[in-house]
């Protein structure tokens, strides 16, 4: 009985010391070691338990912090950027000096305008597409073609709307080359390819037809029917015997 009573008092005292350590931190350890109620062995055991608890808590905190940061990084969505051609119904969608962007020299080996993947979502993509953004050039069959701007216009007498496309053609070849409005087509959001149309409205200067000598250049407007909002593609095929095709994409409201 006496042994049990002493053991009970010992556990009670140890419990009080541990509680004081939890509440008072370092002060509790000081009280433990200055007290004469506990043997050296008891003081070492209690101190070891406290230090062990502190170490276990610290390790657990570091582990949880690392896992939360790694899970946070894995759940962060990847931000992707998609390039689209500029264009709207009220302002021109790109105006640039063609020669500055195209590196347009007589030596065709100095610059290759054949880019792929810019309009991967376009229905009808082929390996012969030369894809470019508005204001940039495409070089096909000895000629350089540019789409300078695109906008939606209203008919003068009526409610119809058209798409006004301003283009430039420059002859790089050593021989004369033909040009004309029917070298240009448009692909609608529905996947229909339309030819240029005649439109009653402010379309000056219209792109006519003719020939260009070496170094000759012409700029004019080509009009197409407007088929509602969506992504359109301007198509240029200057030579029926050459598979190269110029493609410019634009989103219209």
From TrEMBL:
The keyword Membrane applies. Residues 65-76, 83-96 have a biased composition (Low complexity). Pfam families: DUF4352. The chain crosses the membrane at residues 13-32, 44-63. Keywords: Membrane, Signal, Transmembrane, Transmembrane helix. Residues 64-96 are annotated as: Disordered. Residues 135-226 form the DUF4352 domain. This is Unannotated protein. It comes from freshwater metagenome.
